[in-house]
């Protein structure tokens, strides 16, 4: 009987052990099956996060401020040459890019005889320019040191060959070309169109010649320092 009971106990223990092993095996499988979807679902979540990070637009950089041109609002030789008699003050301001400084004023504003002299800042050393308006129309302009034109030197002999009444063509042939226009009034072609030219003298530093034409005829000439 003891031997039979012992065998029976061993049989029962073996059965229990078999059940436990089966439970561990199948239970582990279920746990693995349960956790597998979590693992699989984590991949799409990571991909979604990466996609969101990729889809974010990069921050826009603020455009750098453009520097204003060096000649903005300043009278240059090019701008000076564009300005002609008869222009309004507003047209001149548009060309130069700034308001002028009033140097003198006569008459009542709005009247045809209202006369104003303006000055503008220039881009040259020791240079200056004046513009006179009457009835809001440019009547004359003058400059010194603004124009970058080169003028031929004039000698005392050339100066003595020039006489009043000569045309600009005749004078330019004698002196070798057109000088620097330092002042101009009236419209070209008009009998009162007046132009004053300046030339460097051939006698050295400081010598110069000034010629004034009206209606294309020499009205006056002057020189300084010629020998």
First-to-last CA distance: 160 Å
Shape: globular
Oligomer: single chain
**Helix coverage percent:** 25-40%
Query: Strand order across the biggest sheet?
Result: 1-2-3-4-5-6-7-8
Mean pLDDT: 81
Q: Rounded to an integer, what's the Rg over CA atoms? A: 49 Å
Q: Strand share of the residues?
A: 15-25%
Number of helices: 5
What are the segments in which pLDDT stays under 50 over at least 5 consecutive residues?
A: 1-18, 20-26, 28-43
Strand-pairing-aware structural class: alpha+beta
Series of secondary-structure elements, N-terminal to C-terminal: HHHEEEEHHEEEE
The major β-sheet equals: 8 strands, antiparallel
The count of DSSP E runs of length 2 or more, i.e. the number of strands, is: 8
């Amino acid at each position: 009987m003891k031997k039979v009971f012992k065998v029976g106990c061993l049989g029962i223990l073996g059965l229990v052990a078999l059940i436990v092993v089966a439970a561990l095996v199948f239970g582990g499988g279920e746990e693995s099956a349960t956790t597998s979807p979590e693992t699989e679902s984590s991949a799409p979540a990571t991909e979604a996060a990466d996609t969101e990070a990729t889809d974010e637009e990069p921050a826009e950089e603020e455009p750098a401020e453009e520097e204003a041109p060096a000649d903005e609002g300043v009278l240059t030789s090019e701008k000076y040459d564009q300005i002609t008699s008869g222009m309004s003050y507003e047209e001149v301001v548009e060309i130069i890019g700034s308001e002028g400084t009033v140097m003198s004023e006569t008459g009542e504003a709005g009247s045809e005889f209202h006369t104003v002299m303006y000055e503008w800042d220039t881009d040259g050393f020791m240079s200056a320019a004046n513009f006179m308006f009457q009835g809001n129309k440019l009547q004359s302009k003058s400059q010194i040191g603004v124009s970058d034109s080169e003028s031929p030197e004039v000698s005392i002999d050339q100066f003595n060959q020039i006489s009043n009444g000569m045309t600009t063509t005749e004078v330019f042939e004698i002196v070798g070309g057109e000088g620097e226009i330092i002042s101009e009034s009236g419209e070209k072609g008009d009998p009162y169109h007046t132009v004053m030219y300046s030339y460097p003298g051939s006698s050295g530093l400081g010598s110069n010649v000034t010629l004034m034409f009206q209606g294309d005829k020499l009205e006056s000439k002057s020189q300084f320092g010629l020998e």
